[in-house]
Amino acid sequence: QLIGVVAESASGETRVAATPATVRLLLKLGYRAVVEPGAGEASGFDDHAYAEAGAEIGEAWNADVVLKVNAPSPTEIRRLRKGTTVVGLLAPAQNPELLEKLSAAGVTALALDAVPRISRAQSMDVLSSMANIAGYRAVIEAAHVFGRFFTGQVTAAGKVPPAKVLVAGAGVAGLAAIGAASSLGAVVRATDPRPEVADQVKSLGGEYLPVDVAQEASTDGYAKATSVDYDRAAAELYHEQAQDVDIVITTALIPGRPAPRLLTAADVAAMKPGSVIVDMAAAMGGNVEGTVPGRAVVTGNGVTIIGYTDLASRLPAQASQLFGTNLVNLIKLLTPEKDGRLTVDFDDVVQRAVTVVRTGEVTWPPPPVAVS
Ligand code: NAD
């Protein structure tokens, strides 16, 4: 079968679903590949590099399997042939209309963001790959705006104190932010309702700040909404920390719900002028009062709140490489004979979970999967 790699049309998107290196891996699985001209340009991969890897350069929308980063737009869906398989970040829970359109187009749609959180599927977990990159980039954005050292220094010209960083939410993105900030020499603190992250925070050079209100444990690997008592105790912690730290990076998300509000306008007002907040939950409504998705805003007291929603796209070559590798791992699972023919086995929980439309029939949501 022919795999098509198409150019992304979403504004600000710099990633591409396959790089020359991952195209080589797709060819090894028995496929042929065609890349739309310029598809990799914004990530630094030119057509020539894809051609060298063995791909044709040309019309990619009428391939048997179309690889994308973002969900296809209505215009793009019209370009898909009936019977095509389209793969990308489809956010099926948030996009019932998209599923209807894909169903009407008679295609099969695989949602990379629906890969279940089980150990076996980790190699296909695009959300974790992107969260890791975004967490690192959040620190770089904060450091850029902060305009001062992260590390403390004692020099002949005087002593420079280290920056203090608070990371709220120590999941994949939070841990990457903790690692990046502490490797730059900052004093890093982190909090999360899941006390089991304390050791991971410590191993990356951070200090875990507990909120001593017991939480119901998660059964599916996803965070649950916190209790009123927890939120009250956490609010105290945030208010205290806001007065002391220079940088706050918030990453708190609860699947299927708006992001929890962690910092109020009063907390932001309590921060020192020149402080920086990166609200990584901006696209989901934000963890911070005053965040504007996609923008950096400066408050009356001189605090910059960064609400960029494209943090992973700001490191496009590596984001595309990791995205592409996760995607190859999924295609490998769907090509058991390595014969260049995609098959979907509904008895396999991973394949069942990612299939949101099968030859025109909406198959989302899948039955629940237990974590292993
Ligand atoms: P996420 O993006 O859903 O949430 C980010 C973090 O926000 C989580 O750590 C969560 O506990 C935290 N949070 C939620 N409510 C909060 C609140 N009110 N205040 C502060 N923090 C809050 O989570 P994630 O980063 O995708 O992953 C969470 C965990 O799941 C990680 O420990 C990760 O190792 C695990 N995981 C496992 C797999 C797998 O086994 N395949 C895949 C991905 C993630």
Pick out the low-confidence regions: none
Shape: globular
Q: How far apart lie the N and C ends? A: 33 Å
Order of helices and strands: EHEHEEHEHEHEEEHEHEHEHEEEHHEE
Find the structural class using helix and strand composition. Answer: alpha/beta
Total beta strands: 17
Residues in helix, %? 25-40%
Q: Determine the oligomeric state from the structure.
A: single chain
**Main beta-sheet strand count, sense and barrel state:** 8 strands, mixed
> What is bound: which ligands?
nicotinamide-adenine-dinucleotide
Radius of gyration using CA atoms only: 22 Å
Neighbour order of strands in the largest sheet: 3-2-1-4-5-6-16-17
- Helices, by number, come to 11
Mean pLDDT: 96
Report strand %.
15-25%
